[in-house]
Amino acid sequence: MIFLKVIAESDIKISDEVKGNIPQIAAGDNQIIQLFNTAYLWAGIICVAIIIVSGILYTTSAGDSARVKTAKNAITYAVVGIVVILLAFTITNFVIGKV
To answer: Which of 82, 53, 58, 60 is nearest to 71 (CA)?
Structure first.
């Protein structure tokens, strides 16, 4: 109890200023971030292009079950690829601290 009384009567000032070694993003890290973001962008563009081409293949299959199966598999894998790209983007930005 004496300890609490000493703390209550002391002149402790709390500052908003944070002192210490807080990690910051260095100039070279921005280039790495840009490289990752560019890779995610191009991977997403490729996945969308695969979906478009597979959709065309699906509509022009004329009932050929092998072409329909190939188109459906390509669309499925491209959608899975987009999900993986979005997760990778989210994880890297979370680790970097931008989210």
So the answer is: 58
From CA 51, how far away is CA 75, in angstroms rounded? 5
Q: Is 26 left (phi over 0), alpha (psi -120 to 50) or beta?
A: beta
Condensed to tens digits (0 to 9), the pLDDT of residues 42-59 reads 999 999 999 999 999 999
Distance CA 71, CA 66 (A): 9
Helix, strand, or coil here: 96? helix
Is the overall model pTM greater than 0.85, yes or no? no
Q: What are phi and psi of 96, to 5 degrees?
A: -70, -30
Q: How far apart are CA 22 and CA 20, in angstroms?
A: 6
> What is the identity of the amino acid at 52?
I
What is the maximal distance between C-alpha atoms in the chain?
88
Average pLDDT, the chain: 84
